[in-house]
Amino acid sequence: MAAHNDTDVAPSVESSPKSETTTPTLSVYGNDLEKGADPEKSTEKPPATGPAPTTPAIGPPPDGGAQAWLVVLGAFSGLFVSFGWINCIGVFQAYYESHQLSAYSTSTITWITSLETFVMFFCGPIFGTIFDSHGPRKILLLGTFLHVFGLMMASLSTEYYQFILAQGICSPIGASAIFNASVNSVSTWFAKRRAFALGVTAAGSSLGGVIFPIMVTKLIPEVGFPWAMRICAFLILFMLGIANATLKSRLSHQPKPFDILGFVRPLAELKFALTLAAAFCFFWGMFLPFTFVITQAERYGMSERLAGYLIPILNAARYVSLPRSGITFSSDAALSIIGRTLPGYLADKVGRYNTMVITTFFSAILVLALWLPARGNVPAILFSALYGFGSGAFVSLAPACVAQISDLRQVGVRNGTFFAVISFAALTGTPIGGALVPDVLHGDYTHLQIFCGVVMITGACLFVLARGVVGGFKLNKV
Question: Where are stretches of biased composition, namely Basic and acidic residues (predicted)?
Fold first, then answer.
């Protein structure tokens, strides 16, 4: 079968010594089926005699079926406890500033929450390599232990360095293992419907981002901070039981020697490098609203009780019922799923890069046009809902774009390189934002919001260039 582009190289198959006809091989690239490869309709027949291929041909992903959707269920559970937990960092930022770490500056406290995001993504190359060599089982078990253990230790923490070690390092290392095992496993089961499947998977992070902050804010007054953290850890352990029972890879994994250059080679590809640069800039600002939307709203008059619901609203991309707040909204839970799955579904129809360009521009414009001038309750709530919908698409579309330009046998390493590089944006973005607002309760948020909007707009523009390199600048599916 002819290669579809300059990088499509199918697994080698030995031809039969008794026949010139060779067994058709299948590309394992993420975009092979979209370019016409359909081996089930091929008229070529494998030879009736001859030795078996030395390297078995990898068939096309099934794009559905009970086993594939069970993997999605496990990945949904994995992102619920990994990215979903990271999505509620704004709750801890606000809580630590007024309780255990009230003696520290905002910029200092943000290192705990920014470390969570940084470590989760920076460990990607390590767990991506293990995934490519051994599959998801080992890293999932390791991640389960580290994530739960880290949160249990955080429940006992009282000093700054203890929170750094438990919540900023140990727990997110486990979350990284879970995240990489989940996303990479789903990518091996889907091709034509990959963005949609990853969108369903990413809905787990949305649901986790809704449930965890509400749990934390409700449980702390009832049972105290230590037991609130432990109850969250027990819920995480239950969800990871589902993930461990259902997650598996479709590929046959063989141990590979460690190759440090394997992480660097993708950077030499223009389409990968541009995609990575675009994601870095967008990611640099993406988490700032998650971290500061609560304190910014309180700065301009929102009650502490109502502001506590902004993170769940942001993660759900929907309005909720706010008791005794004087404001009542529809609580249609389906919108929480739509906010993650709809962009993925559209991406499979109109193109992953096309959808990424639209959603990144939408998110950046919201920051500059709505969050920047917001001075009341309604604009803050409206921004949280719309921004959660727009920015959430990045979680599912980023690995779908990487898989589209990658050999699936290397998807673990390439996703690892991708997320490791953008982790530095997550590490530095929040402290920069904290430094731009020295006094979160009385200061001016304008500089933070401008920084956030500008870097996100830059990322969206770079996604346009990446789209052009991958599929041209005509109005077509890319």
Answer: 32-44
**Structure letter (DSSP) for residue 407:** B
Report whether 307 contacts 382 (CB < 8 A): no
Rg from Cα positions in the chain = 23
- Pair 32, 173 in one domain: no
Picking from 370, 368, 387, 363, the residue whose alpha carbon sits closest to that of residue 310 is 387
175 in Cβ contact with 147 (< 8 Å): yes
CA distance 454 to 451: 5
pLDDT (mean) for 98-125: 85
Instruction: Please give the Cα distance from 267 to 385 (Å, whole number).
Output: 35
Higher pLDDT, 332 or 229: 229
- Nearest CA among 370, 408, 366 for reference residue 387: 366
Residue 320 — φ and ψ, nearest 5°? Answer: -130, 170
Dihedral angle sign, alpha carbons of residues 306, 203, 275, 462: negative
State the Cα–Cα distance between residues 201 and 316, nearest whole angstrom.
14
322 is a domain residue:
no
Range of the domain at 245: 66-253+263-313+331-471
Cα–Cα distance, 427 to 266 (Å, whole number):
22
- Among 29, 60, 91, which residue terminates a domain? 60
Note whether residue 196 is domain-resident. Answer: yes
What average pLDDT does the segment 118-145 reach? 90
pLDDT for residue 292 is more than 60: yes
Q: What digits encode the pLDDT tens for the residues 155-193?
A: 999 899 999 999 999 999 999 999 999 998 998 899 888
Q: Are residues 187 and 282 in the same domain?
A: yes
CATH number for the domain spanning 439: value is 1.20.1250.20
- Read off φ and ψ for residue 51, nearest 5 degrees: -70, 155
Q: Which residues share a beta bridge with 29?
A: 407
Based on the fold, state whether residues 14 and 147 are members of the same structural domain.
Answer: no
Integer Cα distance of 401 and 198 in angstroms: 11
Four-CA torsion 195, 196, 201, 204, nearest 10 degrees: 120
Based on the fold, state whether residues 249 and 383 are members of the same structural domain: yes
